[in-house]
Design goal:
The chain has 187 residues and is mainly α. It folds into two domains: 73 residues, no CATH class; 98 residues. Helix content is 57%, strand content 8%. The chain has seven helices and six strands, in the order E-H-H-E-E-H-H-E-H-H-E-E-H. It has a three-stranded antiparallel beta sheet with strand order 2-1-3. A three-stranded antiparallel beta sheet has the order 5-4-6.
């Protein structure tokens, strides 16, 4: 372990430190432009999808690692934006973001309680009122310029329901991932 993150103690679980260290070393090398053998190039989307094994020994606290991943993703988005703008211009970047934002509008325009399919029977689902409240904030951001950050969307927590009493988790998570992409692109 490099000591980059706080470690877990006792019986608490955390992310496997060796895998966390390997990812952050690879990300640093790629961000700084070094050639990294053995693997696809990292980008913001790949960082967003990272998942580490959860273990009891030789582990880092998950909250610290998750926060660092969020910052790393934002740094890669900023780099991708700078590279895109240098090649295609700011107007093309904004047009690309506008197109991504348009993909959100279908759900945002639906009535409360109908934005997403209900969860599967017996499965955990998200409270529809909680999700709809966040969607209302997204509408405020896009339509009225109200303040909202990618961190607020990423860190949103919803009460848990069972099955059809809430929205299906997968669709909500995918939608919020796209919303975070758009917000990161303009931050």
């Amino acid at each position: 372990m490099t000591g980059t993150f706080p470690t877990t103690t006792g019986l608490r679980r955390g992310y496997a430190a060796d895998e966390v260290d390997a990812l952050f070393a690879r990300a640093r090398a790629e961000y700084e432009g070094s050639d990294v053998p053995g693997g696809a190039t990292l980008d913001a989307a790949a960082i967003h999808r990272v998942a580490f094994p959860v273990v009891r020994r030789n582990a880092y606290e998950t909250t610290a690692v998750d926060a660092a991943l969020d910052r790393l993703e934002a740094a890669f988005v900023a780099r991708e934006r700078a590279e895109f703008v240098a090649t295609h211009g700011q107007q093309a970047w904004m047009a690309q973001l506008a197109e991504k934002a348009r993909t959100l509008y279908g759900r945002l325009g639906r009535p409360d309680g109908e934005r997403f399919a209900p969860g599967a029977r017996g499965e955990a689902s998200y409270d529809a009122d909680d999700v709809d409240a966040l969607c209302a904030r997204l509408v405020g951001y896009f339509d009225r310029g109200e303040a909202l950050t990618s961190a607020e969307v990423r860190e949103a927590r919803f009460r848990t329901r069972r099955g059809r009493d809430g929205y299906g988790v997968g669709a909500v998570d995918a939608f919020l991932t796209r919303a975070v992409e758009v917000l990161l692109g303009v931050e």
